[in-house]
Sequence to fold (438 residues):
Amino acid sequence: MISALVGLTSFSFVGVAKDARPNILIIVVDDLGWAGVGFHSKTMTTPNLDKLAKESTELSRFYAYPVCSPTRAALLSGNIPRRYGVVDALNGRDPGIPAGLQTIPSTFKAAGYQTSLVGKWHLGVATTPQKNGFDHFYGFLSSGVAYYKHTAPNGRVDWQRDGQTINEEGYSTYLLADEAIKQLKSRDKDKPFYLQVAFNAPHDPIIATPELLEKHKGETNGAYNAVVEAMDQGIGRIVNAVDSENLAKETLIVFFSDNGAGGREGGSNFPLKRGKGTFYEGGIRTPALVRWPGKVASGKALSHPICVQDLFPTLASAAGVPMPKGLNIDGVSQWSTLKSGKATKRTPFLVAGYDIALFDGDWKMIEFQNGQRSLFNVKDDMTEQKDQLSSQPELAKRLGAKIDEMKKSLPPAPARAARPYGGPGGGRPKVNGGGGGN
Fold:
């Protein structure tokens, strides 16, 4: 499959009427758990996201990957990122995704969209945002930055505009929101836009503004709650800018987190099991919203399973943008289901890294890297308390055979990196360890 993906695939763009091509705004947050939003937990202060939820269809079974780099690779490529060897958070000089990959921004750019990434890249050093379809890039390349100093984990300043390091003062969450709003207001109004805003919040190091830190003083995880509220403020300002520019009906907004909370930051995935770094629901099932007034229902929840790699073909279908000819991807358009607002039957799909999760309707099978498997009905048992591997032998056999068949096209997973994700809802279960297997 790689040979069909590497290298920009040429294709002819069949014109779509301007008013039929919506703007696309994708908002990705970092390490925000299932219970990190007010519409899932009363302990969180997220009034802007709560308002957005009322105006949106909530994707109550949206699946990302257990850590950030694979989710971002899946979003851009529409593929299971293990195809590129991306199964964990990338470090240092890790190559990441290959150069010349056909991506969602390059596809929309070829269709006449102005494209921009504001915020986190974290997809390796083999290529850059500008070489993968983004006209503009403002943000950082590494796994995370200090909120005020804008330094990467190695201590170096990691803040740039279009490839040039810049020194700016300010709180990163607010700077990213400022930039997104600036681009919205200065856009070429004769072209639709694809804008991807990737906040570093609430990823560690947890650093809050003095004002919000004082507001949440005395709370359990007060600093974390303050960081999340600042993130919510930034998102609210961006959405308000869309609305104030009279673009609400012309803009499809997608919001989600790149993985579940890991515990180090103070986040929670309650009532989901485990968290970041695991293939249990707490690691890969994240808050997610889709807003497009008049096209997508508001104030409703959709239980239909959708994966991050589905977003590329789904958004292309929604926008009337043709997929590149000959492109072979794992994601499947879910636009018809989003429009109808009704859960439908879909083909089984994989979320695959070190471990593998197969989703087939209400059923989920996890195959750990050591070859052990677990089986859950995530509709009836979203907390994954009842492993039905032994009580459903025929189903387990069928789904196991499906995993065996589907993983044949995937390269073997590399040896697992020693990367513990501890704390509430986090931590890797012992069964995840070991070699061999998938």
